Amino acid sequence: MQVISCTEEHKDRLTEIWLLSVSRSLSDADPGQLGFYTRMFKEEILERFEIWAVRARFGGDLTGFIAMNGPKVELLVVHPHYQGQGIARLLLDHAGQRGELAVDVGEQNAGAYDFYQRYGFVETGRSDLDVHGQPSPTLHLLRPQLEPQTGAS
Q1: Using CA atoms, how far apart are residues 56 and 63, in angstroms rounded to an integer?
Q2: Which class is 99-153 in CATH?
Q3: How far apart are CA 12 and CA 42, in angstroms?
Q4: Per the CB 3.0–4.6 Å rule, which of 16, 17, 55, 87 could disulfide with 64?
Q5: What does the radius of gyration of the chain's CA atoms come to, in whole angstroms?
Q6: pTM of the model
Q7: How far apart are CA 150 and CA 5, in angstroms?
Q8: Alpha-carbon distance values, 7 to 4, 49, 90, 144 (Å)
Q9: pLDDT digits (tens, 9 = 90+) for 12-62
Q10: Where are the domains of the chain?
Q11: CA 68 – CA 72 distance, rounded (Å)
Q12: Which residues are 104's β-sheet partners?
């Protein structure tokens, strides 16, 4: 697997991965809502943030991606067929090479909280509002800069 910087040519595949990953939470959405969220993803995420993706072996498809806003993880998505294969760790470690990482998770999202804790994030604070100013408690997590890996002696 290889981590690559995403460009315009990758936007359709990134959108496809994102849609597959959110299909459960948007399963009750009408087509208009789905279109709204897709436009928001393309305009807010793909246009505003630095995107890194994992390409499958031998030049294959993109399997997951991370959207970064400086040191902050805005979005981390792995295609459902590739989950559990270390892609999220690879993306987090790649992003973390520059220093500490931050991420916000909804307080009600225990799965995301547990996921980030497994990857070394610790809780540093809590807000009563989400990033959109809506009343949705949010936990602020931080992963300190990792020590560089040294070769085996």
Answers
A1: 6
A2: alpha beta
A3: 9
A4: 87
A5: 16
A6: 0.85
A7: 25
A8: 9, 11, 19, 28
A9: 999 999 888 877 666 666 666 777 878 888 888 888 999 999 998 766 889
A10: 1-84, 99-153
A11: 6
A12: 140
Among candidates 93, 43, 22, 102, which has minimal Cα distance to 69?
102
CA distances from 81 to 13, 63, 87, 141, 152 (A): 14, 8, 11, 27, 33
Taking alpha carbons only, the member of 36, 38, 42 closest to residue 11 is 42
Cβ contact 40:46 at 8 Å: no
Whether CATH 3.40.50.2000 fits 1-84: no
Return the HEC string of the chain. Answer: CEEEECCHHHHHHHHHHHHHHHCCCCCCCCHHHHHHHHHHHHHHHHHHCEEEEEECHHHCCEEEEEEEECCEEEEEEECHHHCCCCHHHHHHHHHHCCCCEEEEEECCCHHHHHHHHHCCCEEEEEEEECCCCCEEEEEEEEECCCCCCCCCC
Q: Do the two domains 1-84 and 99-153 of this chain adopt the same fold?
A: yes
Q: Look-up: residue for tokens 């690879």?
A: 90
> Among candidates 31, 74, 64, which has minimal Cα distance to 39?
31
Length of the chain: 153
